[in-house]
Design brief:
There is one protein chain. The chain is mostly helical. The chain contains 15 helices and seven strands. The strands form three sheets. A three-stranded antiparallel β-sheet has the order 3-4-5. Helix 1 crosses helix 4.
Length: about 325
């Protein structure tokens, strides 16, 4: 155990305060940067110099990627119509991560409302929160048109020679890809590498992507669960879906009912088998929604507490949702 004196603790606290203030000043500088970029993009300099775009001209002179400059210019243009968001960004009250998400579909009519929503959630959850707001307040056709318009896959070669990239897919297509990767990964034993280390979850998922590509997506059968409730439709991880999307799936889907009691708790479903039934899995998913230890929403396992070896049966009241890393960690501690 490391002993820290009161004086050292106060010094570290001051450093932490300085760090937060530096981050706030960085946000304010970032605002000035995107505003300056869009003002430059509206000017004649890059055209006169024969550059293909303002982003390319700036990239050559600021040592940034053209895609980065293109995104700054996009955000700067959007902020001209979003006064509340622009002001919060300018003062450092709203991070660049949240601004980038808000400017994708905020309008002058909903700017203030979405800004208030963004202030209530952490940056990591802003995408899900805005998507849920969209489902409640926009027509399905508008949402699906925007999702289709914004789809893309981008790639680049990193310095180590690997191919790196990102993708943006409509929620159902994205869910199919993620489920295929997770299913492949969970059914493929991890092997210790030549360096003596076990692969990380991200590395295992990369291996799974290679397997899915080579197998043409047909190696495993997998299930995608869509919840249809009085509050709307969503995937297991909470990603909302339009009713139009769900309606198109109904003729080809299996439909099962999960009954809740008067307090909106899913009703128990029991079985003496070692592995939980599909009904039990749906009940536990609905009840826990994520890993109860770390909050992760993927690579989930159904953990017996107490262990099945002790009870000899599988009850939903004795199942807990844990991601694979937390599940392994808990049993290694037992």
């Amino acid at each position: 155990m490391t002993v820290v004196t009161l004086e050292q603790f106060e010094t570290e606290r001051n450093r932490a305060t300085d760090l937060v203030m530096t981050a706030r000043r960085f946000t304010q500088t970032h605002y000035e940067l995107v505003v300056a970029c869009v003002e430059f993009a509206d000017g004649p300099i890059w055209v006169a110099d024969g550059a293909p775009s303002a982003a390319h001209w700036l990239a050559d002179r600021t040592d940034h990627c053209a895609n980065t400059l293109r995104e700054w210019i996009r955000i700067g243009r959007a902020l001209r119509a979003l006064r509340a968001t622009a002001e919060a960004f300018k003062t450092g009250d709203l991070s660049f991560s949240k601004v980038r998400a808000l400017t994708r579909f905020a309008t002058p009519n909903n700017d203030t409302e979405l800004l208030e929503l963004a202030a209530k959630v952490p940056a990591s959850d802003i995408g899900t929160a805005l998507a849920a707001w969209s489902i409640r307040n926009e027509d399905d056709d508008v949402i699906e048109a925007r999702q289709k318009r914004q789809r893309h896959v981008t790639t680049r070669t990193d310095p180590d020679g690997t191919i790196c990239g990102s993708f943006r897919l409509p929620p159902l297509a994205g869910a199919k890809l993620i489920t295929a990767l997770n299913t492949t990964m969970m059914r493929t034993p991890a092997n210790r590498g030549a360096d003596g280390f076990w692969p990380t979850v991200a590395q295992q998922r990369a291996d799974a992507l290679g397997d899915v590509i080579e197998a043409g997506g047909g190696r495993y059968l997998y299930e995608i669960v869509i919840h249809v409730t009085g509050d709307g439709c969503h995937l297991d991880d909470g990603t909302p879906l339009t009713q139009n999307t769900v309606a198109r799936l109904i003729p080809h889907a299996f439909i099962r009912a999960l009954i809740h009691d008067s307090k909106r708790r899913p009703i128990d479903a029991t079985n003496r088998r070692r592995h939980p039934t599909p009904r039990q899995k749906r009940l536990v998913n609905t009840r826990d929604t994520a890993c109860i230890d770390c909050g992760r929403r993927d690579l989930l396992n159904y953990d017996h507490v107490p262990a099945h070896e002790i009870t000899g049966h599988t009850l939903t009241t004795q199942l807990e949702l844990r991601c694979s890393p937390c599940h392994t960690r808990r049993h290694n501690l037992d």
